[in-house]
Write a structure and sequence with these properties.
By secondary structure, the protein is mainly alpha-helical. It contains three helices and no strands. It has a domain at about 25-75. Helix 2 (about 30-50) packs antiparallel against helix 3. It starts with a helix and ends with a helix.
């Protein structure tokens, strides 16, 4: 009787994830991080231009960083 109770308590687990399995893909690679770094630089330059009073260059840099480079960094493969 104790043996049957023990077998009911055991949780059946399948094989765990393997680090070398072919279907596993790393989310971001080196290219993505380079694009993100470029976006950060462009955004920082945009805020610096904004603090200097630029009403033309600052929005261009900020929109480029937020609306072009960051999505590109996310979607690039």
């Amino acid at each position: 009787m104790a043996n049957a109770a023990e077998s009911r308590r055991k949780v059946r687990r399948g094989p765990g994830p393997k680090s070398d399995s072919p279907g596993v893909e790393i989310a971001f690679g080196r290219k993505n991080y380079i694009i993100f770094a470029g976006a950060a630089v462009v955004i920082i330059l945009g805020y610096l231009a904004l603090s200097q009073g630029s009403i033309t260059l600052a929005p261009i840099l900020l929109l480029t960083g937020y609306l072009v480079l960051i999505p590109w960094g996310i979607l690039a493969k």
